[in-house]
Amino acid sequence: MSKKTLNKSNLAALGPDRLADLLLEVSTGSADIKRRLRLELSHNLGASELAHEVHKRLAALRKSKTYVSWRRRKSLVTDLTTQVAMIVDKIAPDDPGEAFELLWQFMDLAPFIYARADDRRGDISEVFNAAIQYFEVIAPRAEPDIETLADRVWIALRDDEQGVWDDIIGLLATTLGDAGFDRLKAHIHDFAATPVARKDADHEAIQFLRDLRGERDFCADLNAGFVKRCLQDIAEVTGDTSAYIAQFTANDLSRKSIAAEVATLMLEENAPDKALAALNHASGPHGQAAWDDAMIATLTALNKPDDAQAHRWACFERDLSAPHLRDYLKFLPDFEDVEAQDRARIYTLSYPAVLSALHFCLEWPDLLTASQLVIKRADEIDGDDYEFINHATDALRDKYPLAAVLLLRSMIDFALTHERTTRYKYVIDHIQDCEKLDADIDDYGVFEPHKSYVENFRKRGGLTTLIGTAF
Question: With CB atoms counted within 10 Å of each terminal CB, which end of the chain scores lower, N or C?
């Protein structure tokens, strides 16, 4: 290896004096490098000295009012990342208590940073999202006072408007323990019991009219949602399924997505009867996929394999769901799967939404059925979805050229019929593709042969001057 390669060994050969000179030289004009060098010098004097420097830097970042544009964002990210590295890698091993306090101070910086920084790319939030994770390792070693810690967690959650502290309950679960969670829940319940203060701008008469019209109190709704999230986070990390479910209102439980979540939890608690009751209580179109999966799992847990199979087939029939059909076939006795696949093909060919059926055929994949579908229902194919139809054409062109031509014609006809002038330039390409595929087609059946189609195409008004010379 060349002795000019930039590596540790070659640089060490320069000697400490030369390296010190070089560091001073490269740090000129670079605040980031100077700051890092000062931190390293402080660490060389001990963890307490480094902690003092980090504390000063965090305080300076908090006080700063200068707006950080996207041009200066990289430097800010580097600065923030450096402070976290100093806390976690250099201070925490020697003084976890001090590291814990500094890490908390760092997280408290977030709203001040967001208020003056352009974070459209999300790299600043990534630093804070990564930093908070270190509490899980540092907190148990720091051994903070549990009641004080619970109070701090509550204040952080209560005042958090940007979701900076969202993960803190789970990360500090081991450290908080039962006593800490009891105190935290007491704070939450006190908050829930406190009436929401009226805004100063809300005159009594205005509020009376709002109440008369039955308008929702959005502040109360926000508070209720916050309380619910906090209590569910605690219930989740403590494994209290009943407490978690208890936070859902009757209206929540009537939603299929929530019912599916509750049923899954009840299955984990070996209570399939309760899971089934929760699923049957829900209604509405939203959350259908999760509800179906939970229902199948529940029927299986209740030892009702035939009902589970019936539900899988119903999901396939409703949505042409490939995963449900695969599961359905997997649980059939030997040799019955071939018959079931034939039944699925016949059903697919008559499925009301022809493009959905074509999508299923390509996903399965079953190109033969896809070609049969296109030929059988060519007049139903809407050429507007050009991205998908181009994809389908490419999938079919090698083995099923007639189906590919019919798909190309659907896009041509759509562009002409609806006068989509922006697509006219692609019409020529589609016609030329049809020309190439024509050589592989022996029989057009009930459809126009290529030459006849092109001749009729020429006769269509309004396009002769645009594309007539292409043929």
Answer: N
